[in-house]
Amino acid sequence: MDLTLQQIVEGLPKSLLNATDRDLEGFQKITEEAIKLREGHRNLQKMIKNFSTSTIRT
After folding, report:
1. Which domain of life is it from (predicted)?
2. Rounded to whole angstroms, what are the CA distances from 20 to 1, 17, 24, 26, 33?
């Protein structure tokens, strides 16, 4: 689904639009850590699946 820039901005809460640079930096750090956590969870699921598969074969 492609959104226009206007649609994206309209979807942002006013608190985010009025946030200070410091607030935005904090929000960015939280977002980056959430992405790392999600990627780590995916990697962990793959490792568990591979381990389970290799254990069953032996």
Report:
1. Bacteria
2. 30, 9, 6, 10, 20
